[in-house]
Structure formats: C-alpha cells, structure tokens
Design a protein that fits this description.
heterodimer, A: alpha+beta, Jelly Rolls, six-stranded antiparallel beta sheet, 20 helices, B: about 270 residues, mainly alpha
Amino acid sequence: MAEVVTIPRPRRWDTPFSDEMDSIDVERILALDPFREMDRDRFPDSLPLAGIISNDTRIVYCQDGDIVVREGDYGNSAFLVITGQVRVVLQPGLSEAMLGRAHSQKKSLMQAVAQLWRNASYPEVWDSHTAGAGEGTASRAGVDQQARVFIQDVPRVLDEHRTATLVAGDMFGEIAALGRTQRTASVISDGPSELLEIRWQGLRDIRRRVDEFRKHVDRLYRERSLVSHLRATPMFQHLDEAAINRIAEGTLFETYGDFDWHTQYKRDQGQSFNHRLAGEPVIVAEGHYPDGLLLVRAGFARVSQVVNNGDRTIRYIGRGAVHGMAEIVHNWSDHASKAGPDGDGEDRTTTMQATLRALGYVDILRVPTAVIEALVLPTLSGEELAEYGQLDEPQDKADAGGDNDPGVNRLIEPGMLEFLVEHRYINGTSTMLMDLDRCVRCDDCVVACARAHDSNPRFNRHGRRHDHYMVANACMHCMDPVCMIGCPTGAIHRSSSAGQVLINDATCIGCATCANSCPYDNIRMVEVRDRNGAFVRDSVTSAPIVKATKCDLCIDQPGGPACQRACPHDALKRVDMQNLTDLGRWLNR
Amino acid sequence: MITFAIRRWISGFIVLLAAAGLLAWHTAHNVALYQPVFLTGWLLLTVVLLLTLYNGRKKLSMVPMGSAAAWLQLHIYLGLLAVFIFALHIDWTLPSGILERILALFFVVVAGSGVAGIYISRSYARMLTRRTEEVVLERIPQFIAELRAQAEDLVLKSAAETGSSTIADFYGSRLSSYFAAPRNFRLHLRGSRRASFTLMTDMDAMARYLNDQETVYLEKLRLLVERKDRLDYAHALQSTLKAWLFVHLPATYGLILLALLHLVLVYSFSGPR
C-alpha cells in the first residue's frame, strides 16, 4: 500500500508579507494611530490585530525621491506614513517615462521593413545600452531589499508638479487596494520616510471589524469615485446632481469572491464544473425578490438560469454593467397597474429571473429598490421603461424558440459561452481566438510575431479548444490584469494610449511575479542574449538574466497586431470579450 | 461583418462581371479586326505579376498594406479571372508552338495547383481539427520517437515479466517498422482508416494467445498505436498543406520566365500589327 503523504494544513499566514516584522515592530505599530484606537476585542482569537500587523504588513524604508506608488498601477496594498513625509503628485501627474514605463512609439514604415534584416540573429537580444529605468529616474535596491524606482531630481519635479503632502499618521492607497482599481496618483518620498505597507487581506479584515476604518474608506470612495460611477450608468445619466447625490447616499458597497482569484482558479483546474460553480459566491439568486439594482464596479459576474438540475450561463457581465433593472421596472409597473382604478389587486411580484455569481472577485454597488423607484423610474419615458424592462426569458422556453431571447444566446452557442466563462477568457480585451476549421497550421502568425519581436514569438499557437475554436496562449490584455499586482518596479503596466498591458524591458528585473500570477500562463520568462548570442549573466552570481515577455499587441508596429494581419485564411482574430456582438458575428461568419 | 458565403457571392459576381466585360471587349476587338491577342497577353502578364505580389505581402507582414486574408481573397479571385483571360488569349484552343504549349502547361500547373491548394486548405484544416490534437509538423518525428521508445520499453518489460515472446514477436514483425517513421501517407490523405483497422484487428487476433498479464501490456500497446496513427494522420495532412506550395511557387517562377521569353519572341517575330 502506498505511503500516505501528510502535510500541515495550509494556513493563511504561512507566508507572511514580510519575514522581518518582529514583536518589537508589531508593538510599535500597534501604538500608532489608527491602530491605537482600535478595539482589539473585535478581532477573534484566530485573527488578532497583532497577528494582522505581524503577518499582513511590512515596514518600507524609502529614500528621497523613491516612487512609492505609481499612477495607473494596480496595487494590492495601502500605506501608512510612520515617519517622514510623502508627496502625492496631483494632476497632471508624472510622465510615463518618469514612472519607469516604456514610451511606446510606432515604428516608421522604413523601420518596420528594416526589421527584416536588422533583427538580431538570435532571439531576445538585449541591448545593454538601453537598459536602465526611465527619463529622470533610476532604480535601486531599498534598505528592505525591495527594488525601487526613484526620481533623480526631486526638487525639479516638485517645482514642476502640484503636490499634496502626507505626514506621519496619514494613509494612502487603500481605495485602489480594496477596490482593485488603478492608483489614481503617484506618491514619492519627500526625504527619507518610513512607511507601513498593509496588504489587502489585512486591510479587508480590519475594515470588517472596525467601523471607523470602514466608514473612513467608504467615505473616501463616496467622495472620490461613486458619483462619477453613478453618472456613467445609462439609466442615471439624465438625473440632476441632487438626485445622483441621494442615490449615492443610499448605495451599499458589497464585495464578493476572492481578491486573489487567480490562485484559486489555478487550483480548481481539473475540478468538475459543478464543483467550480459551487465555489462562485452568489450575489443574487434566481427567484429572490429584487431588493436593489446591482452595478458592477469591478470584476466579472456570471448570469445563469436554472435548467432542470443544472445552471446554464446566459451571459457574463463586467465593470459598468447593471443587473436587476428589468425586474424592478416590472414590479413598479405592475404595482402601479394593480393600485390603479382598474387594478385587480393580485400580487404579481416578479422575482429575479437569473442568478448572478461572482467570477473571481467582484465589487458591487447595490442601489436599493426603493431608491430606484423613488428617484429613477418616475423620470424614465415609456420607451426607456420598455427597454430597461426586458426580462431574461427562461432557458427552457428559449430552447423551445422563444421570441424574447436577449440576443447573445442566438449569436454564441451555450457551449461556447460556458467555455469562455469557465476558463475566464471573458477577462480578455484582445483574446487570440483561432478558427481551427480555417487554420492550415502554416504558422504565418507565429513568424510574423517573431519578426516584430526580437526574433522570438510572443505567443504559442496552442491552447484550450472548444469545438473548432482555440484560445491561443497569447496575452489577452485583461480587463482585470492580475499579472500587474505585485510587480516591484512597475515594469508591467497599462499603456496610456489604448490600455494594452505592456512590459518595460528596461525596468523588468526578471522576478517572474507577473508570470506566476497570470492565470492563463501567457507570460514567459526568457533568458536574454547579447548580440553574439551569448546569454547575459549576473555579474555577481553568473546566473542568466531573465526577463518577462508577452504579447504587446505590436504596439510599436505601424499596422497593429502582426499575427492577425498575417493570417491568410481569416482564422485568427484578437477579440474583445466585452463585445459579445462582435464575437458572435465572428463565430457565425 | 459579412459571412463567408456572402463574401463568396460578392467576389464571384465581381469576377463574372469582369469576365463578361472582357469577353465583350475581346469580341469588339475581333469584330473591328484588331488583334486582341496582344492586349489579352499584356493583361494576362500584368495579372500574373500582380498575383505574385501576394507572396511578397506574406513576407512583409510588418508593413500596413492590408491583411494577408484580404490579399489572399484578391489572389484567389484574380487568379480565377486570369484563367478566363488565359482562355481568351489562347482563343480556347491548344497553342501550336512548342514554347507556347510548355507555357500553357505551366499556366495549367500553376492554376491547377492553386485550385487544389484552396481545396486542400479548406478541407484538410477541418479534417485536422476533427481527428488530431494540435501538433507542430516539425515536432512530429520527435513525438514518434518518444512513442517508439515507450513501445519498445513496453515490449521488453512484457517479455521479461511474462516470459512469453508473443507480443515481442508481433512487435518485431508488425509494429517496429510502423513506429520507425510516419506511415500510411496516402491512406490518410484519402481519409482511410484501413491501416489502423488492420493493425487493431491483428492485435485482437493475437489477444487469443495472451494471458491476463500480457493482455494488460497489449492494451497499453494499443493506445500507443492509436496515438501513432493520429500523429501519422496529422503528418500526412500537414505535410500536404505545406507541400502543394512547392509545386505552385516554382511553377509560378517558371511561368513568369517563360512568359517573358514568349513576349520577347512575339515582339521579335510577329511582324507588323
């Protein structure tokens, strides 16, 4: 009989944020605001405040000019200033080059053609003279051994930019960390400073247990982001400021799923569909009373309906989407007709027609039904009410050829929809989809990619298949790019032009954080070479220097993605998974 | 986005329209006692040169001058029009001179291989999708070598553990050459599964002489044979998908050279027009 292998059950704090937090540090932090004021009895024995400080925080020592957070980065931690001060760079912020990001400039026609003979003979040749950080910046290892990009001429930068000063006791970065949104401003250290970095898990637990802290974070969000989000919602766009503010006051913040969903997603590979479905938190269930309008602030959610013993996905929704409006409109209309002079008094409450589940991590804004009924519905025209009031037809009726099909089902067959949702391909804004019925396996796409990228293709013509479609292993430039979380130098970033996820070779230190985080294994670590083909090695350890590589959608090429343009058989397309109509049309060519 | 069917109808209609226009123009020239053969000749040469630009476009993938797919569509339908122009040029009859006949033969080979290429591209792509895993053609020999090593290991273990040589003998007589290289090329191209069916039948027949222990080995061997069959299938189809270009492209270069020679001879010896 095979020997049973036993290991201790993995626990949350098996891997603390930092190994260097000792009890003296913890006591010192607990004596600071806001921790000093927190009631420690609100924390259970299994999750004491001191434990959170010890395991979910670390002390960061910054030198003058160090960039603490960069505008546009995705963060998973917040900061508390312990000593010294930092400057928040107000709009307009630091330039892309100063933030250590690549300045993407398109090649001219001649430069593009010259790649035919100018490309190095070896793949991934690294010009050492181009190595370095950005314009006016450099990188160094901090006292805490963390790589950090710093600004060389701090006084000049402070002269040229408007800044706000944060001093000891001030906190920053909590909104981006908890909301999985981009940093809205860059923060630089003004002189030496000591900061407490709190990872999101710790922040979440403190927020859950300390009302004052939760209110503080919610207030900041209400002040800074909520109103603009509400204004962007189609059914609120015509409302005046007073109404929007009243809606904002009544809005509830809810979070579902796991912030680190990519680790769970990888762990659940190979599990049954039902097992994975059961792991998706239900935001609202089919058949329940619609108690609020749900706005997706971040992340993705699966909309499904029960069909016999199973759940069928009818669509997926992402940031900016709305769920539950149709049911609210129906109930309001029915209530009005029931209460009217010709009303029959019969209760015809329409319950939720579909279940909404969190796919990974979802931030929801719930606007109570009463608020919608009071402030929004009376202001909508008959046509708008009819438009917003279209209910999802039950799937068993849709199968029988119902005429109220929302459209997506007709364009994308259910199996394909399930495939895309199940493997989280819905996250992609430029997912490489291949029609294998048309692909002649000529590899023209791969060759074109290699020509445009240091003689090394940035994708594999390989991937999961559904029917005759394949999602190739190419960066999808995700809506929720978890690969960007944790990059120590900010080398992986979103392009400010069209939002592509890019890696700046000059600031990539080859730590592989992004490659390990990518749920789709679309980032590869490669060993770089010099012009003679020899591997570039670390001057101290002699270990090969590696860098992260991935598809950059040919951002510097004049014609856009070479792979798509090179396919002679219309077999390859970069698809924005948020545009289901476009996807459906391509699938049904 | 228009569907492929609509695209085919539109492109086909344009080609028919162009062909009808050419026919009318050709007839008018004939009636007017001009020599349209010179005009159709120049037109044909121009079209053939335009068709060769497609290959150049494939090499210049980094230059923004339309997608390769759009160029291929143009290549296909302009190619069909070229066939019609060619027929007008030779006046629907077999050319009389030797050079002209060779030139015509080259044209037929180029056009025929082009049509065959389109057919192969469309049908084999589907067949590959239905029956094989995605595998890169150049790596198939490596996968076959791995399967061969596994099969040989299995056979040796079987002989050592069971003390019987039935499986080893079968391997030596039927499977060693099968696992040595890609096999049954033509059968796979025809979509025939006769080869693997015969092997499986022989293995079923041999199973009568095996004990339980040997049967386990046979079943493992059977799986390897099935995997090898799929690799052979992918090899046959993918090789053909690449190989037809080795007819189409050299024949095109030959056609252009002969056409230029034909042009020189025509202008040298045709006399006044």
